[in-house]
Amino acid sequence: MTSKGQAMRADILRVLRGASHALSAYDILAALRAGQPQLAPTTIYRALKALCARGEVLRIESLNAYALRQTEGGDQPVILSICDRCGALRESVAPDLVASLSAAAQHSGITPSHHVIEIHGQCHDGCASTPNHP
Ligand SMILES: [Zn+2]
């Protein structure tokens, strides 16, 4: 069971490593079904959940998709910036911002359990019509 789970997680990491953009669970399932026709969606979801919990994979809520986590930082919430044209993902970590958001939630009467911070826009690698470069 454990080794099967490890093999599945390794397969998913391999698929995500080879992708140029975030993939849905069904994209991953389709990629892996070529070699494992019996593979069930629940198996993929279980492995993705474990990979997210380990900080190896990010779930992109607004796209309902997954990508390899690029930044180190353990349990620090990641701020994701997403290019809506080419799908590029950029990660950043801003502990002060997260602390401010947590304080605002506390102040409003909600104890935060996790943060989802996703910013959509256009990347500076050719997608932004007016890049902010000098
Ligand atoms: Zn772009």
Q: What keyword list fits this structure?
A:
single chain, 134 residues, 5 strands, Arc Repressor Mutant, subunit A, binds zinc ion, 4 helices, alpha+beta, 3-stranded mixed sheet, 38% helix, Dna Ligase, domain 1
Tell me about this structure.
The chain starts with a helix and ends in a 13-residue tail after the last strand. It is built from 4 helices and 5 strands. It has 2 domains: 67 residues, Orthogonal Bundle (Arc Repressor Mutant, subunit A), CATH 1.10.10.10; 43 residues, Ferric-uptake regulator, C-terminal dimerisarion domain (Dna Ligase, domain 1, 2-Layer Sandwich), CATH 3.30.1490.190. With 134 residues, it is α+β, with helices and mostly antiparallel strands. It is globular and about 50 Å long. It has a 3-stranded mixed sheet with strand order 4-3-5, with no helix packed on it. The protein has a two-stranded antiparallel sheet with strand order 1-2. Strand 1 and strand 2 form a beta hairpin. Helix 1 crosses helix 3. The structure holds zinc ion. The site of zinc ion has 8 residues, from loops.
